[in-house]
């Protein structure tokens, strides 16, 4: 296929559907032969209709650009002929090829026939760890020039070089890996098998060097470097004086700005580690918090030969710390740090389980595709950490099946091939261990704790340790998850076991009776489970024949269900598991040797039974173990019962859990609790109290210099109605108008932060009805489809866009630079008094004779308010407006505390009209 001509096609259109009247506005074809571009064809196309504003915004193709172009029906035959005898290639072929085929049909041309390739499909298989498969993201990763995304000519050329990069990647992979991919390629959507076969043919013609790989049960793995702890080239000395610190930093950075607060935080961390005491550190955005703890930690670890653990909230932050921040610290200190990431066992692949599943032939499209991605990844990964993979859809279901667990059988050549055991060895040899809060809390429950031989702790994003401990201690029942586990065994409607292993073994069984008993136990378990769920909802007086979403939350005290029935469900699950395991053991004992495919089936059977064991533990923790410190509630949607049922049990306080983790380390080593938001005015130890940190532990607050926030402006709109004195509909009208005027003044690039999903939805719908922001892209959490991160990426992608978000957008979202002009706070971020955990906490505070508003509600809201402001200014060059529409900030006695919590920035109380004029002046001046 090297002499084959590839036609790499990209089209820009007025919309997604040719059949609904959308038309092509630009078409480009890049012809590649022998992996060189031999010809190009590009043209604007007159769609004979107006180009929608959002398409013009996306593509930068205007109505003027296409005014003098030919319509497609005048170009169709020429395009059709150019594609003859080529392999059709596109990035997301499911869009480009069907659209073109429909256009050919409209122009009365026959359907184009030929082979095709999709570079999205190829990239997912060959670059399974890419964070994104969008063309511009892949181009950036692979060093492909891609000057203007969403222009057909640039996109087609970038896709051509992406195809070439995929070809070159296949040439680099071991022959065995390419052969495994080829065997599975017949189930993919495009003509990948022919493409791969040509690569295999080329590889067989020459001897390739594959010494960097090793084999384990037909899996080709990258050879791992031998682990050894290297002695430092020189002994580091901590820079005690201001001059020493300046000299250290100025050598590493050409344009170094002195940040005295960063140096002060370094001293606080250094003192904590050396004096073995505990400190709380609140460090605002802009002081360089990460380097402020990394540098003293590295010097301390190197001087003492002891380990320091840095814990963050998410695995994403772990990776960011090691890949972005650690190299800066290494440059400053002129050393190569001996650092590693530590994850829990479930983060790693079980090679034996994966090998068993690879032998299975009866598999879905998603599972087959995931196996292809895994095959490439295993030839490249050095960690075996499953979080490296970027899988789509059903691939996640397969991933869950091959996780390393406590019940995994020992890998046959222990240590040499087991990624988890190798990771533990790396931790034993490391000076700096980077982990996450969940891992720290989970270490409590391990028989053999991993986090030992530690001599220092730095807890970054310390306030999130509360949430991590809460998640670790919570128990959640989700009806759909239970139904999925039951469905893995058999059919809930037929109430019969239909797992392939059970069905095959039943055919050859010597004792049919035990299979019948097993199926009867399965049926009884399902019937009892369904009856119990039905009995839970009966006393709740839900409306009948509901056709629209009606969501309810009930305290579990209102769910009148007897304990004996709940106990009986657990006992019946145990009864089924007992007979299922007996059937498995007796059947296997009668067989001499299992075929590889049957080994995989029995492994999957064991895996599903283990899932049911875990579900039964969840049931017992939820319904049969009562703790007075927990709160429990039921959520459902009356429109979809029982499918929507969720039951949550969460702790009211996690103080004991966190204290249990850290009490064994206190006074033995330094512990640093660091965060950008630890304090609230008049309640500086709000977070410290929840973490169980003693009042005697010193609290340091480090603020960025005033110059860092010179680009920030805070506006309090003082002619908004009082939120508590007008109906919600009236307030929403005023909010919508304020948002519209702000967006028009700043030309988009706005975050709008709500505390209520209901108010968000009503506001967005009202703005859409008025059509005042018709030329802007509106992305709304819970309204627009997609995850939080997807909405954020879409917001950043468009110049004229607005993002409406609730609680999760107040924190942990970075939009640096010009991508964000304004943050609008619709309501002060008080938690709803009906939120179950909050209500339980408030009731407990009131029971102690204290005021829950000042002890809980207000400080929580102030911290969230600070976090919301933190979205706006992410560097000293950022500019933006922080706009508060809730007048309680000026009319209530507690209002000034919100302003006091912000950095030293200019605050103006102005009518909406005046604010808009100021924003217009600021925006025009900047433009």
Major sheet size, sense and barrel closure:
7 strands, parallel
Number of helices: 34
Helix content: 40-55%
Radius of gyration: 31 Å
Strand content range? 5-15%
Major sheet strand order: 10-11-9-12-19-8-20
Low-confidence stretches: none
Second CATH tier, the architecture of the domain at 709-926: 3-Layer(aba) Sandwich
- Please state the overall shape, judged from the principal axes of the Cα atoms: globular
CATH fold naming of the domain at 709-926: Rossmann fold
The CATH class of the domain at 709-926 is: Alpha Beta
User: N-to-C terminal Cα separation, in Å?
Assistant: 52 Å
Considering the protein shown, what is the CATH homologous superfamily of the domain at 709-926? P-loop containing nucleotide triphosphate hydrolases
Structural class: alpha/beta
Q: Could you report the average pLDDT, rounded to the nearest whole number?
A: 89
Report on this structure.
The protein has 927 residues and is an alpha/beta fold. Among the domains are: 204 residues, Nucleotidyltransferase, domain 5 (2-Layer Sandwich), CATH 3.30.420.10; 176 residues; 218 residues, P-loop containing nucleotide triphosphate hydrolases (Rossmann fold, 3-Layer(aba) Sandwich). The chain contains 34 helices and 27 strands. It has a seven-stranded parallel β-sheet, sandwiched between helices. Strands 23-24-22-25-26-21-27 form a seven-stranded parallel β-sheet, sandwiched between helices. The mean pLDDT is 89.
């Amino acid at each position: 296929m090297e002499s084959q001509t590839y036609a790499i096609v990209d089209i820009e259109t007025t919309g997604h559907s040719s059949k609904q009247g959308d038309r092509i506005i630009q078409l480009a074809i890049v012809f590649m032969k022998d992996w060189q571009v031999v010809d190009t064809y590009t043209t604007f196309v007159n769609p004979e209709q107006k180009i929608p504003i959002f398409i013009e915004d996306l593509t930068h193709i205007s109505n003027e650009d296409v005014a003098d172009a030919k319509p497609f029906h005048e170009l169709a035959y020429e395009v059709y002929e150019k594609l003859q005898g080529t392999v059709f290639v596109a990035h997301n072929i499911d869009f480009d090829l069907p659209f073109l085929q429909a256009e050919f049909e409209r122009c009365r041309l026959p359907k184009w026939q030929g082979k095709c390739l999709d570079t999205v499909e190829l990239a997912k298989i060959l670059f399974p760890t890419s964070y994104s498969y969008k063309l511009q993201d892949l181009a950036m990763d692979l060093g492909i020039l891609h000057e203007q995304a969403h222009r057909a000519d640039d996109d087609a050329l970038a896709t051509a070089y992406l195809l070439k990069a995929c070809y070159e990647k296949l040439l680099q992979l071991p022959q065995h890996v390419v052969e495994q991919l080829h065997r599975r390629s017949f189930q993919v959507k495009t003509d990948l098998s022919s493409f791969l076969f040509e690569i295999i043919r080329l590889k067989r013609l020459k001897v390739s060097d594959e010494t960097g790989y090793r084999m384990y049960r037909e899996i080709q793995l990258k050879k791992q470097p031998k682990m050894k702890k290297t002695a430092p080239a020189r002994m580091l000395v901590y820079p005690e004086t201001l001059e020493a610190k300046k000299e250290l930093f100025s050598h590493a950075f050409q344009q170094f700005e002195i940040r005295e607060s960063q140096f002060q935080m370094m001293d606080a961390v250094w003192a904590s580690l050396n004096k073995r005491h505990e400190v709380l550190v609140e460090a605002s955005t802009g002081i360089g918090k990460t380097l402020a703890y990394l540098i003293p930690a590295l010097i301390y670890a190197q001087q003492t030969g002891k380990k320091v653990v840095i814990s963050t909230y998410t695995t994403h932050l772990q990776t960011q710390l090691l890949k972005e921040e650690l190299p800066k610290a290494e440059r400053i200190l002129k050393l190569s740090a001996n650092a590693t990431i530590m994850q829990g066992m479930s983060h790693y692949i079980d090679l034996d389980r994966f090998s068993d599943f690879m032998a299975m032939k009866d598999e879905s499209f998603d599972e087959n595709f995931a196996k292809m991605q895994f095959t490439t990844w295993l030839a490249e990964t050095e960690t075996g950490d499953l979080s490296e993979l970027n899988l789509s859809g059903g691939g996640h279901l397969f991933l869950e099946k091959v996780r390393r667990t406590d019940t995994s059988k020992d890998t046959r050549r222990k240590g040499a091939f087991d990624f988890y055991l190798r990771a533990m060895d790396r931790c034993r040899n490391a000076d700096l261990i980077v982990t996450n809060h969940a891992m720290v809390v989970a270490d409590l429950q391990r028989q053999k704790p991993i986090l030992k031989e530690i001599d220092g702790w730095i807890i970054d994003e310390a306030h999130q340790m509360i949430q991590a401990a809460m998640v670790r201690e919570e128990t959640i029942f989700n009806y759909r998850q239970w139904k999925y586990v039951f469905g893995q065994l058999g059919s809930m409607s037929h109430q019969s076991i239909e797992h392939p292993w059970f069905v095959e073994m039943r055919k050859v069984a010597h004792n049919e009776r035990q299979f019948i008993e097993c199926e009867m136990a399965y049926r009884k378990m399902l019937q009892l489970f369904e009856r119990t769920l039905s009995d839970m909802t009966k006393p709740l007086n839900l409306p009948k024949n509901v056709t629209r979403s009606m969501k309810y939350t009930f305290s579990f005290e209102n769910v009148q269900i007897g304990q004996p029935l709940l106990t009986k469900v657990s006992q019946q699950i145990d009864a089924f598991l007992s007979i299922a395991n007996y059937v498995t053991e007796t059947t296997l004992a009668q067989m001499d040797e299992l075929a590889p495919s049957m080994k995989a089936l029995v492994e999957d059977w064991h895996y599903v039974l283990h899932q049911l064991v875990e579900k039964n533990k969840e049931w017992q923790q939820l319904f049969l173990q009562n703790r007075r410190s927990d709160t429990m509630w039921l959520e459902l949607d009356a429109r979809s019962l029982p499918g929507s049922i969720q039951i949550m049990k969460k702790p009211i306080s996690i103080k004991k859990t966190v204290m249990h983790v850290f009490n064994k380390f206190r006074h033995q080593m330094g512990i640093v609790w660091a965060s950008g938001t630890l304090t609230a005015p008049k309640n500086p130890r709000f977070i410290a109290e929840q973490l169980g940190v003693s009042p005697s532990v010193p609290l340091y607050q480090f603020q960025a210099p005033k110059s860092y926030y010179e680009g920030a402006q805070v506006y309090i709109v003082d002619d908004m109605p009082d939120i508590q004195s007008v109906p919600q509909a009236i307030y929403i009208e005023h909010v919508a108008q304020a948002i519209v005027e702000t967006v028009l003044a700043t030309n988009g690039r706005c975050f709008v932060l709500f505390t209520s999903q209901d108010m968000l939805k009503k506001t967005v719908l009202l703005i859409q009805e008025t059509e005042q922001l018709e030329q802007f892209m509106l992305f709304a959490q819970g309204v627009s489809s997609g995850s939080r991160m997807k909405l954020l990426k879409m917001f950043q992608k468009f110049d004229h866009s607005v993002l409406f978000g609730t609680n999760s957008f107040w924190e942990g979202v970075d939009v640096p630079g010009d991508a964000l002009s304004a943050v609008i706070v619709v309501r002060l971020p008080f938690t709803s008094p009906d939120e179950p955990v909050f209500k339980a906490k408030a009731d407990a505070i009131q029971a102690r004779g204290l005021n829950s508003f000042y002890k809980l509600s207000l400080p929580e809201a102030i911290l969230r308010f600070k976090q919301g402001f933190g979205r706006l200014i992410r560097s000293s060059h950022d500019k933006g407006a922080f706009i508060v529409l809730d007048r309680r900030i000026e009319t209530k006695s507690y209002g000034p505390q919100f302003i006091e919590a912000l950095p030293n920035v200019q605050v103006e109380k102005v009518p909406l009209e005046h604010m808009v004029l100021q924003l217009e002046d600021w925006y025009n001046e900047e433009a």
